Each structure stands twice: as structure tokens, then as C-alpha cells.
Amino acid sequence: MIADVSKSDKIVVEKSTVPVKTAEAIEKILTHNSKGINFQILSNPEFLAEGTAIQDLFNPDRVLIGGRETPEGNKAVQALKDVYAHWVPEDRILTTNLWSAELSKLAANAFLAQRISSVNAMSALCEATGADVTQVSYAVGKDTRIGPKFLNASVGFGGSCFQKDILNLVYICECNGLPEVAEYWKQVIKINDYQKNRFVNRVVSSMFNTVSNKKIAILGFAFKKDTGDTRETPAIDVCKGLLGDKARLSIFDPQVTVDQIKRDLTMKKFDWDHPLHLQPMSPTTVKQVTCVWDAYEATKDAHGICILTEWDEFKNLDFKRIYDNMQKPAFVFDGRNIVNVDQLREIGFIVYSIGKPLDAWLKDMPAVA
């Protein structure tokens, strides 16, 4: 389309996260349809995070521009650099070759996901030994070579980028004859799936090895707070796992619509040979799910609560009121480590918080395999 309408030389900027060498494909298509017009292709991946996109745009860690290392390519890179220079300090505008820019975006997301899977792997060990993952990650993050970000243990990572980009990386590695490297990155996703599976198993085993016909309140469905995005959210797999044992779910999320939740739970998911990646819900199973617009309504008469998104409002709930209106024993399974465990135990809850020392009840009921 660009070739069809272009009447003068053009700089074409690739913004999306794409497989390495996509720019080369665009370049070939444009060149073969050029009609004498010159095209320069630049790779300029965006590093904006949902919930902080405007802030990330105005004050980026870095801007990355990749282009051909030719006089024409360098000129095109400089033209885009001049646009960003209006508000981004020059030392934060990095220039590379085309392939490095494309790969850097995939690598950045893979490294971030890897950190989450690493701390989640440690959380399992912490529970087994009585260590506290919050204390461990704080101590580790104090090392300036590592830093404190992306070291919060949780039920798992979600979002549209991490899994997609890692699978992209895996594919590229396999295509380039690097099966060991591909397997390394695949393990990041496998640990993420393991963490979701482990969470479901903990819920089921703690509640006398069955959640059949028990009401479980799901607080949070988005993959992270301050967004209504549910793409690859851990909540989907956790809910499907609980529904597989015939639990009755009452779901509340401040921003995700009822239609979106039902759509996510009925959609067939890509199977990574994992027990939680179930078939679409049957109409009967759909009846086991209700969506409400209030945390207190969701938790009323519930046997257990699963916190799956770290919404700030969940930290300030009146848990005494919630406890009084729940079935007993009352369970809280904190998939984001946002509640005060000691306070909730004082109220009377049996609390499971990922990577935290287990109370006596949970020790007596080890997670099922």
C-alpha cells in the first residue's frame, strides 16, 4: 500500500514487536514495487507499559532506532532521531543496525519475564523451607548488579507481550539451529505455567482436597492493576483449573467487563502440554461463574478468596466484614502478596500468600501434585 501511493522517497518506521528480519521483508516488498522511489526502513520498537504509557513516552529509559548502516540509512536514522530530540535527551537515543533493534525488544521482554519466573521459582522453595520470598527478593534486589524491579513473587505473569515475544524468540532460535537456547527460553514460560498450576493445587488441597460446589471469590481478573487488559492473564488458567474441580466462581474486577470475562473463559487456549490449558467451558460450566461489581458481594457466603490482580483497593478492604459474611473455615489465597498476612490470621482467616511461611493448617495439607 505504501509503494502504491508513494510519489517521493520515504522513510518507513516499523513500530510493532515483530520477528527478527521483518524489516528485511518490508524492504524487499517496497523495493520490488518502488517505481524508482527510494525507501529506507527503520526499526523503532516502543517500550511503553500499560498503565504508565504516557509517562513512559514523555520520559523513556531509552529510544531505540535501528537502520541500515549505509549513508542513506544513517541519514534516515538521523531524521527520526531529530524528531525524538525535541523531548528526549540525546544520550538516551540509541542507534543500532536493523536486526539488533528488532531483537532488543524481544530480548527486553524475555529478560523481564525471566526475572518473574526466577522469583516465582524461588517462591516454591521458600514455601518448602519456611523462608519468606519477600525478604529474599529484597535482599537480592539490594545487589546493584541485579536491582529491585520485577522481583515480586506472584501467581504468574500475563499480558499480550511476554509469552508471545518469548515464543517468537524460541521460534527464531529453533530456526537458527539453536535448540538449547530455545529450550532455555521455553523454560521461562513453563515455570510461569507451573506457578499457576501450583496455586490452583494449593487452593484445592487446602480446602479438604476439593472445591466442588464451593463458592470461590475471585478478586481481580486483569493481568495487572490499572488496566482492563486480560490478555494471557493468569486469572484465566486459575479460574479454569478451579472450574475443572466444579467450583462456583464469583468474579469481581474494577475494570474488566462481564462480557470480557465470559469470553476469556470460553475461548479455547493454545495448549503448551499443560494441565491447566483446558478445553473451552461447556454451557453447564459457564453457569458456575457469576460476575459482580463489588468485592463484598463477591465474597459473601464464599468458602475462599483468590486475589489475582494487585488492585490498590483490595489492600484496603474491610476484611473483618468479609470474614463475618463468609463460610467457615474462611480461606484467603493471595496470588499477589498484597494483604497483611498476620492481620488476616488474627481475624480468623487461613491465609496462603505466595512464597511466605505456611501456617499450621497449610503444612498439614501439602499441595497436591
From TrEMBL:
<dbReference type="GO" id="GO:0006024">
    <property type="term" value="P:glycosaminoglycan biosynthetic process"/>
</dbReference>
<protein>
    <recommendedName>
        <fullName>UDP-glucose 6-dehydrogenase</fullName>
        <ecNumber>1.1.1.22</ecNumber>
    </recommendedName>
</protein>
<dbReference type="Pfam" id="PF03720">
    <property type="entry name" value="UDPG_MGDP_dh_C"/>
</dbReference>
<dbReference type="InterPro" id="IPR001732">
    <property type="entry name" value="UDP-Glc/GDP-Man_DH_N"/>
</dbReference>
<dbReference type="InterPro" id="IPR036220">
    <property type="entry name" value="UDP-Glc/GDP-Man_DH_C_sf"/>
</dbReference>
<feature type="binding site">
    <location>
        <begin position="150"/>
        <end position="154"/>
    </location>
    <ligand>
        <name>substrate</name>
    </ligand>
</feature>
<dbReference type="GO" id="GO:0051287">
    <property type="term" value="F:NAD binding"/>
</dbReference>
<feature type="binding site">
    <location>
        <begin position="47"/>
        <end position="50"/>
    </location>
    <ligand>
        <name>substrate</name>
    </ligand>
</feature>
<feature type="binding site">
    <location>
        <position position="105"/>
    </location>
    <ligand>
        <name>substrate</name>
    </ligand>
</feature>
<dbReference type="Pfam" id="PF00984">
    <property type="entry name" value="UDPG_MGDP_dh"/>
</dbReference>
<comment type="similarity">
    <text>Belongs to the UDP-glucose/GDP-mannose dehydrogenase family.</text>
</comment>
<feature type="binding site">
    <location>
        <position position="50"/>
    </location>
    <ligand>
        <name>NAD(+)</name>
    </ligand>
</feature>
<dbReference type="InterPro" id="IPR014026">
    <property type="entry name" value="UDP-Glc/GDP-Man_DH_dimer"/>
</dbReference>
<dbReference type="InterPro" id="IPR028357">
    <property type="entry name" value="UDPglc_DH_bac"/>
</dbReference>
<dbReference type="GO" id="GO:0000271">
    <property type="term" value="P:polysaccharide biosynthetic process"/>
</dbReference>
<keyword id="KW-0520">NAD</keyword>
<comment type="pathway">
    <text>Nucleotide-sugar biosynthesis; UDP-alpha-D-glucuronate biosynthesis; UDP-alpha-D-glucuronate from UDP-alpha-D-glucose: step 1/1.</text>
</comment>
<feature type="binding site">
    <location>
        <position position="17"/>
    </location>
    <ligand>
        <name>NAD(+)</name>
    </ligand>
</feature>
<feature type="binding site">
    <location>
        <position position="164"/>
    </location>
    <ligand>
        <name>NAD(+)</name>
    </ligand>
</feature>
<feature type="binding site">
    <location>
        <position position="224"/>
    </location>
    <ligand>
        <name>substrate</name>
    </ligand>
</feature>
<dbReference type="InterPro" id="IPR036291">
    <property type="entry name" value="NAD(P)-bd_dom_sf"/>
</dbReference>
<dbReference type="InterPro" id="IPR017476">
    <property type="entry name" value="UDP-Glc/GDP-Man"/>
</dbReference>
<feature type="binding site">
    <location>
        <position position="231"/>
    </location>
    <ligand>
        <name>NAD(+)</name>
    </ligand>
</feature>
<dbReference type="GO" id="GO:0006065">
    <property type="term" value="P:UDP-glucuronate biosynthetic process"/>
</dbReference>
<dbReference type="InterPro" id="IPR028356">
    <property type="entry name" value="UDPglc_DH_euk"/>
</dbReference>
<feature type="domain" description="UDP-glucose/GDP-mannose dehydrogenase C-terminal">
    <location>
        <begin position="217"/>
        <end position="341"/>
    </location>
</feature>
<dbReference type="GO" id="GO:0003979">
    <property type="term" value="F:UDP-glucose 6-dehydrogenase activity"/>
</dbReference>
<dbReference type="InterPro" id="IPR014027">
    <property type="entry name" value="UDP-Glc/GDP-Man_DH_C"/>
</dbReference>
<feature type="binding site">
    <location>
        <position position="158"/>
    </location>
    <ligand>
        <name>substrate</name>
    </ligand>
</feature>
<dbReference type="GO" id="GO:0005634">
    <property type="term" value="C:nucleus"/>
</dbReference>
<dbReference type="Pfam" id="PF03721">
    <property type="entry name" value="UDPG_MGDP_dh_N"/>
</dbReference>
<dbReference type="InterPro" id="IPR008927">
    <property type="entry name" value="6-PGluconate_DH-like_C_sf"/>
</dbReference>
<keyword id="KW-0560">Oxidoreductase</keyword>
<feature type="active site" description="Nucleophile">
    <location>
        <position position="161"/>
    </location>
</feature>
